[in-house]
Amino acid sequence: MKGDLAMMTKMRENMPLIMWILVGAFLATIVFSWGMGGFKTKGELDGVVGRIGEREILYDQYNRLVQDRIAQERGADDKPAPITDEKIRQVRKEVWDNLVRSELMNSYQEKWGIITSDEEVAFAVRNNPPKWIRENENFIKDGQFDRARYEEFLRDPRSAEILVSIESEYRSSIGNQKVIDRIIGPVFVSPDEIWDEYAATTRKFQAVAVTFPLRNYPVDSMSITKAEIEEYYTKNRASYERKEKRKLAYIAIPVTTTREDSNKTFELAQETIAQIKGGEDFAVLATEMSEDPGSAERGGDLGYVVSGRMVKEFDSTMFATEPGQVAGPVATRFGVHIIKVMDRKRGGETGDSVRASHILLKWKPSTDTDERAGQTAKDFTDAAKAEGFTKAAARFRLEVKETDWFVKAPTGNIPGIGALIPAMDFAFASKTGSTSHVFRTKIRNEDNYVVLQVKEVVAGGVTPLAEVENTIRRTLVSRKQETLALEAARVFRGKVRDMQSFVSETERENLKVDTTGEHTQRDFMRVFGSDETIGKMMFTLEPGQVSEPLSNSRGAFVAVLVSKTTADPAEFEKKKAEIEERLRRQKQNNVYTDWLAQAEKAVGVQDNRYLYYPDY
Fold this sequence. Notes:
This protein is α+β, with helices and mostly antiparallel strands and 616 residues long. It folds into four domains: 2-185 and 606-611, CATH 1.10.4030; 204-242 and 465-564, Chitinase A, domain 3, CATH 3.10.50; 245-255 and 368-459, Roll (Chitinase A, domain 3); 259-364, Chitinase A, domain 3 (Roll). It has 21 helices and 22 strands. Strands 7, 12, 13, 16 and 17 form a five-stranded antiparallel β-sheet that branches. Helix 5 (118-127) crosses helix 8 (160-184). It starts with a helix and ends in a 9-residue tail after the last strand.
């Protein structure tokens, strides 16, 4: 009984972690923040990080999920995994995406009248126990999951609290799966599609061809009339739909290592040397302190190093130090090094070598330096909102730069600034002249605090004819060139019947004949380039047969098939199921992704995280 009670207690304590594992893709997961909103005034925030339909996602709820997820990612307390800034940003994204999907699923369960019965939930709980239970030592017997112990757990009244949570999540996940099944259920892969996919990557052909390149048929661009351009524009208006684009002004305040910071790093190195000379273990200190990840986990051990392999300052000190001695601090462009020499080998094919360990303390800005840069950026933001961006920049002696035009992209990539999703969100959620909060990012591998202003906005819609007229003119020139090249190919084709007449006519007209090499229809093909339509057509010919005139953006062609292989039916049967499953998954993923995008628009998703996380 005591063992059962201890198990129940531990399971209740682990419920946040258990739920994370159980819910998986559909449960909201979130990330750790170094402080709500960074350098922002509390009055500017309402505690809402986003809205999904009518539901408000509160910062406190979101950040609590973050803490739980980070705890899960860290793992056991005795061996916690390191959590990088990149991992934090990744989890924030995953959590937000899963929150959106979960809310959409709930919305469409209600919209489509999807109901999950108690019987369905009970069946799932009884017959498909969660992974964390299947792997829990209390349910393992002889290395296998013991169903009898699980059945006993289900009957135990003390399990009620845990079972309620499990049943709730199973009810949600079963309903979610019903929504997904309804979305992707109609997906069908035909036998012909499976065969075509197999054949496209296995059968090969080889041909010879004569090319009529576009450059041989010049067309005066001024011969393209205004009427032709307008007609093409009218017929292809959809091709000239453009997304809304924006341009930003911005200032950047670099977080630069100061002389004082460098002196502190040097002082820390001297203190560490004193500890080593006082008896502290070099390897232990290297593991704890060194910022060279490659050697730190080995206690700083670099192995045997030959002369000239390290930077000059490090190399000369290392080879001047006797085995058993510690040298330093040694300053290099990487930081400050403390070097311990363990052994020395004379001569050898590569010369003398030394076995050494080191502790690296990198040059980096202190917390005070970082905070001063951040506070300057905050002060600038306040001034810019009060007196204007340009005027404030002049007073703070900061250079105002401008980005190129950009459209909204999921990567958050902004010209001149780099990938910064919260800045992208600000840019497209704000009016012209709006000044942002402070963001932190790396520009050319250097940490910076940046403040943005929406400089210009161009609305989405059909691009005016005047802006694309020259592009259309070039397109029509190419089309006319292709028409002329195709006509020349038709004239040539009318003179040949087979390989023999093909060869004799090319010789008579002094035309160059190229071989394609052996290719599948999806390869990049010599002569034709990447053109699956032409590649597939070649398999309709028999060896020695002459093709009809062909064309693409390279020019026009007449080809003669030299050889072709056939797809092996026996091998196809072995791979048929695998190909079918792959095609089905591709179709299902495409259908689901399209549905998700449409559902987000229909329900309405507002992401305000950029107000709370300057580097999410």
